[in-house]
Amino acid sequence: MSNYKELKRECYEANMELPRLDLVVYTFGNVSAVARDKGVFAIKPSGIPYEELAADDMVIVDLDNKVVEGKMRPSSDTKTHAFLYRSWENVGGIAHTHSTYAVAWAQAQRDIPIFGTTHADHHTHDVPCAPPMSDELIQGDYEHMTGQQILDCFREKNLDFNEVEMVLLGNHGPFTWGKNAAKAVYNSKVLEELAKMAFLTLQINPNAPRLRQALIRKHYDRKHGKDAYYGQNG
Amino acid sequence: MSNYKELKRECYEANMELPRLDLVVYTFGNVSAVARDKGVFAIKPSGIPYEELAADDMVIVDLDNKVVEGKMRPSSDTKTHAFLYRSWENVGGIAHTHSTYAVAWAQAQRDIPIFGTTHADHHTHDVPCAPPMSDELIQGDYEHMTGQQILDCFREKNLDFNEVEMVLLGNHGPFTWGKNAAKAVYNSKVLEELAKMAFLTLQINPNAPRLRQALIRKHYDRKHGKDAYYGQNG
Amino acid sequence: MSNYKELKRECYEANMELPRLDLVVYTFGNVSAVARDKGVFAIKPSGIPYEELAADDMVIVDLDNKVVEGKMRPSSDTKTHAFLYRSWENVGGIAHTHSTYAVAWAQAQRDIPIFGTTHADHHTHDVPCAPPMSDELIQGDYEHMTGQQILDCFREKNLDFNEVEMVLLGNHGPFTWGKNAAKAVYNSKVLEELAKMAFLTLQINPNAPRLRQALIRKHYDRKHGKDAYYGQNG
Amino acid sequence: MSNYKELKRECYEANMELPRLDLVVYTFGNVSAVARDKGVFAIKPSGIPYEELAADDMVIVDLDNKVVEGKMRPSSDTKTHAFLYRSWENVGGIAHTHSTYAVAWAQAQRDIPIFGTTHADHHTHDVPCAPPMSDELIQGDYEHMTGQQILDCFREKNLDFNEVEMVLLGNHGPFTWGKNAAKAVYNSKVLEELAKMAFLTLQINPNAPRLRQALIRKHYDRKHGKDAYYGQNG
């Protein structure tokens, strides 16, 4: 019997959401879920199609990238997940996809401007696009450095990962996270929507202005501020 | 036993159409249905995913925004619905979504030009885009002022809400309405179609002319005029 | 017992294909099927949603627009169908939709250029876009004149309706036809595909050249020429 | 009893994936699977809709285009398949579709630039677009020359068909291949995704740079290089 049955289940359910939400085809994408008290996370095995996955196939890895339990090799992006879990204490789940519109912005190497309240309902900044790595970094410990690249991007832009739970990696695609794996996947879907809306907005009006600051704050705070009145909590 | 069982049912059915018609993801969007004789309307509870909704979860609110029946908090947009019901006597249902193409036009802050008969089959004007609110209004009673903003836009443009049953809120997204909740949702879907068609039209021909007046009248009148011959009534 | 049971069935099946092929929403669109020997055609009743249609609801109309059998009012576009059946002897079925990409080209008032073999597999010309009617014609017998407008467009461009089984009506949308109702619907779907492909082609390369004449002939003839070798016939 | 039961089954399953993956409508597209030891391949019969196909309908053809078994005429593109099997020894399956975005690039007569890691996960080059044939070639043995055209394109660009398993035929559409028929279909789907992502990338940033060489190598090698660590093999 596995000691990580529940963790694997959470991770499995979140992974299976990706094809249902049209965020992946084939083996693209991966989601992980962390158990902070046990110092491990569960992650999708590498290169397995979603329709063949079982909950027990999830691989258990510690925060130093060592496989703790599992017959299969973990996702090739495992070190990026581990790096982010080590760097950001509150993060409970991480998702990575190659969803079409988010990838297009990443390939265009542009931040996604905050154009409307759909965006401000989730956070108050443009979705950052981290620049592509230098050649040395790529030839080094690539997936580790991918995590570093995300961290550097957030530091340089002075962003808080507790608020902005999504990033584009230039030329690659999106990573998203949240308090748990389900929230990370939710953020992947929201990001894809924001990416599509922003793309269309610029096609209709190349000079579309960013959302004004008062409206950014209003929408973010009514959902996430101390006097939030969206949803059933608080 | 609720006194509003039928009203809740109407409201629930209309809300459940939104994900079926691909107009919302997650908890985005909300529909309400009014009972004029009882001075109340039913509306979706805030932040509840559609797949978890039950008819009995609909919240009953009076036209002064007071909850009359319901265990849950009503949609955060409730005051906008109440404002429009107070202002416009014939309206029986209201829908609000973040559907992709309508939002893109709202974020581009442009009216949707009447380019064809699909549009004129429904009304005879460009779909109006209300400008974003000033900072003072945003920091005041925001959802109330959102209703005011819609009203002002219709007054300024001299539009009749009985004919034009849809509006874009600049930087936000669409509100639609109709004689009942089902018609409001129908208008949300039609608006999304018009928004997509108009977007594509401008991509193919940036100088595409608006539909000529005679054709606007012809198509609108054959469906809605006194000698209408579309459909099975009249 | 109806004398037109089979005709109604053919017409009904073809109509029901439209929502399945994503060519219509709600009550948009209509298909008819003609029985030349009986001098009548069956057509969708006006304004009825597809999910409520039954085969027996199809309305039987003669070529002078008189209802021969049926409890409901026929499609408001009936006179256009009748006109085309009177004008073009070999046509067995006609379809009209408001499919998104075809409408966008109609609203842009542009012919769809023949850019590739997908197009040439079906016919050898740009898909013609008939110009919008003059104001007098619109105020006259509108649906009759819509047929006239299509006929004039084919005459002016010297097109053969036996080869080119599709047209765009400027500012309105597509009409398609064929040897029977099923083929007319097939052409509606093909047209929507061609419209989308041509739109994307021009986005990628605004100077994309039309398909060269030798390739147009080759692809058309291998499917439709006297030495055709596509398919299982001939 | 057929001697080719398994081969037909492989070919049939691969063909049926095309409509499931939204890569074809109606009778568009065809997949073949080769049995090198028997000197034959199985291919879809010409002009048969997917929903009417049975495994036993697959036509068995030898590498000189002669039908060996089968009641139906093979795909009109059979000679192109045979040509490629003769030219490229390791290829086990070939797929041809008219998928929307890939066709748009083919009609635009442009290579698909390698903009991101989704692309580099599969190969290290732009997806080549072979130029349209000259008029003489078209009027000759067209489908045979289509194969020649692909071969010439790969030779001129110095591409290895073992690495780059996809090509666009100018004005026509994509051909893809792989170690077996399933892999060929996989490549058709991947190509359609790459085509859509690249289209959107250029819309967002017309000056989007190609992926840098170090990242191309990194992503390709971690999946396909001698020290590959993606997936469960090696």
Structure commentary:
Four copies of one chain form a homotetramer. Chain A has eight helices and eight strands. By secondary structure, chain A is an alpha+beta fold. The first copy, chain A, has one domain (5-224): L-fuculose-1-phosphate Aldolase (3-Layer(aba) Sandwich), CATH 3.40.225. In chain A, strand 3 (59-62) and strand 4 (67-69) form a beta hairpin. In chain A, helix 1 (5-20) runs parallel beside helix 7 (181-204), helix 2 (78-87) packs parallel to helix 6 (142-156) and helix 3 (100-108) crosses helix 7. The first copy, chain A, is globular and about 55 Å long. The model of chain A has no long low-confidence stretch (mean pLDDT 96). Chains in contact: A-B, A-D, B-C, C-D. At the A-B interface, helix 7 and helix 8 of A face helix 3, helix 5 and helix 7 of B.
List the helices and strands and how they pair.
The structure is a homotetramer of 234-residue chains.
Chain A: H1 5-20, E1 30-35, E2 40-43, E3 59-62, E4 67-69, H2 78-87, E5 93-96, H3 100-108, H4 117-120, E6 129-130, H5 135-139, H6 142-156, E7 166-169, E8 174-178, H7 181-204, H8 213-224
Parallel strand pairs in A: 6-7
Antiparallel strand pairs in A: 1-2, 1-5, 2-3, 3-4, 5-8, 7-8
Helix pairs in contact in A: 1-7, 2-6, 3-7
Protein name (chains A, B, C, D): L-ribulose-5-phosphate 4-epimerase
Cofactor (chains A, B, C, D): Zn(2+)
Keywords (chains A, B, C, D): Isomerase, Metal-binding, Zinc
